[in-house]
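User: I'm designing a mutation panel for RecA family profile 1 domain-containing protein and want to avoid disrupting the core. Could you give me a predicted structure to guide residue selection? Please restate the sequence first so the numbering is unambiguous.

Assistant: Good idea. Sequence first, for numbering, then the predicted structure tokens:
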Amino acid sequence: MDYHSIHGYDRASFDVPGTHRLPTVSASQALDELDNNASTHVSTGIEDLDRSLIANITADSQDTTKGGVQRGQVTEIWGPPGAGKTALGLQLTANALCDGDAVVWVDCFQVLQHDRLRAVTNATKARRNSQINSALDASESQEGDSSRFYHYSCFTLPHLVALVSRPTAKLIPNNCSLMVISSLSALVNSALPKSHDGKATSKSHKGPSPSAKRTQALLSIVNALHKLAATRNCAVVVLSQCATKMHSERGATLTAAVNASVWDQGISTRLVMFRDWAWQENNLTSVFLAGLQKLDGKACQEVVENVVAFKVELDGVSQVPYEALQTFELARHKRKLGQTELEVPDSEDDEDYGWADEDEAAMPAPPPQWQGSEDLILGQDIGQSEEENSEQEEPVTDDESIMK
């Protein structure tokens, strides 16, 4: 008579075999993966953005198609509503599915629209097939994609922690190359709101303060995501919202909704997304912009680097030509009035200095007020981007503040 026949087997242990150790990789396999960059990255569909996401890239390198989001790391994509975060996540999913890998999508605030994902995937496959001059059966390809796409809805924080902390082979397959967690910040801020007075502690209640609980939860989540990305060799992409942060000198600026130090240290790569508007032939047009803030665990020297412009359409995202100025002349030196050879107008003069009434009629209409323009972002068809409505720490009221 042994121990198990008397006491039975331990059913209370939540350890899953194979999740506490890194996968064993042979030397030949490691060298093959280094030579083939496509197996270590997931393409975003934007060539310049893929190139900027490659760490330690040389200036004379011409390989711009094998970059993208690094596998085995945690990448955060944050920005205001309507900036294209979900569209970029869908494009990443479509590229991973077209590569023959499995994808896990986790909803934390809004349910994913499968019709939109299907349209982006079909368009991505059509572009690839046109490049290689091959034709595939559409029905067979859709069935294969649906079998490799795993969709979960975790609208409570314990459900998400349980999914990422102890994943099974059925929940997250071994051939998974991408895991997208949508609106994680809304779930964290709802379950563990940020304390505005972190130093104040209640003497009547024992135990950790709400601020300490939030820090412990963030540390546990980011460690679980790192462990999941390393053991499964998949890219974990977190789509986060933004919040308004007040500064005494610079005023209000936009920041990530989850901006704790333990969270920032756990994020390997961070992308920020925003939009800009311009008048073209009396029409209001928008452009989506994505910039790099952190790469491979190292923060960029500037606040935002390698800004790339793209557009969001029904069939995915695509890059648009964009030429950024090398230097911005923010402040010019003032010249003396004698050097300008200009005449100072008399305030009592009624002259218009060549300004006619027909000139005012020929001017285009002024752009809309940016103050409180979230209704414009979410309720119009200007950008054709469908983003989640987030519950932020403070309402975002100035879209131009992200450019600061």
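For picking mutation sites, this is relevant: The longest strand covers residues 283-295. Residues 210-232 form the longest helix (23 residues).
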